[in-house]
Amino acid sequence: GKGTATVALTNLEHVYDGTEKAATATSVPAGLAVDFTYDGSSNAPVGAGSYAVTGTVNEANWQGSATGTSELGKGTATVALGNLAQAYDGTPKSATATTVPAGLAVEFTYDGFTNGPVEVGSYVVTGWVDEVNWQGSATGTLAIGKGLATVILGDLEQRYDGTARIATATTVPGGLTVAITYDGFPTAPTGVGSYAVAGVVDDTVYHGSTTGTLVVSKGNQTILNFLPADG
User: Fold this and answer.
1) Which residue of 101, 123, 145, 209 pairs with 200 in a disulfide if CB–CB is 3.0 to 4.6 A?
2) Predicted local confidence at residue 229, as pLDDT
3) How far, CA to CA in Å, does 117 sit from each of 4, 93, 113, 125?
4) In the chain, what is the straight-line distance between the N-terminal and C-terminal CA atoms, in Å?
């Protein structure tokens, strides 16, 4: 009968890279041909996972076999976060990511939550690869700044009437509070003249400003003519 050979499996730990990962074996006596199966298949595995390996001597005069487990770990991908500086507009803000190799699926959390933040502020972002064969992660900070509002000044041409001449302002989005100054002062002028007007949005989630000139012209004067009474 065939002699009994000793078989020792080797090369059982690998990292995924898209290629087949085959086991190897040493034998006593040395140099014997050994055939392998992986979970019963003769094809060496490619994807990450654990595989039952059997190595069997294939010789005319020798027999012997060994079993073991081939561990194929996930490959390490590089993750680069993007879109981390955004402006408030009332909608959730999400980071983006690119990966090497390209196109891998990436999941995100923001301060530990899966929903993208809405409000102005800074949020710790973690992005990690969610793939069967790849792993990798990156952290960063998503900063949501105040949104830019449009400010439009109105009532910039008025006539003197002895009362304060106040400019108005409208905003987009509407309804924002606007602080108005006249030549740098918050008090509206009363006298005839030209005044540099600045309107600045005063809001927790929006910023914006504009400038203009308030022109106060002379007021209309009514002159009454009195005719002398007949003498």
Assistant:
1) 209
2) 67
3) 67, 6, 9, 10
4) 162
> Alpha-carbon distance 74 to 72, whole Å?
7
Q: What is the CA radius of gyration of the chain?
A: 40
Q: How far is C-alpha 97 from the geometric centre of its chain's CA atoms?
A: 7
**Residue 45: which of 9, 12, 8, 10 has the closest Cα?**
12
What dihedral angle (degrees, nearest 10) is formed by the CA atoms of 76, 80, 81, 85?
Answer: 170
- pLDDT tens, position by position, 70-83: 999 999 999 999 99
State the pairing for strand pair 65-73/75-76.
unpaired
* Interatomic CA distance for residues 180 and 185, integer angstroms: 8
Q: Buried (b) or exposed (e) across 185-220, using 16+ Cβ within 10 A?
A: eeebbeeeeebebbbbbebebbbbebebebebeeee
Residues 36-57 pLDDT 10s? 999 999 999 999 999 999 999 9
Amino acid of residue 116? G
Could you tell me the two tokens for 10? 């080797």
Do the strands 209-217 and 206-207 form a parallel or antiparallel pair, or are they unpaired?
A: unpaired
Short-list 23, 66, 27, CA closest to 42: 23
- CA dist 75 and 141 (Å) reads 26
- Which candidate, 76, 78, 77, 80, places its Cα nearest to that of 140? 80
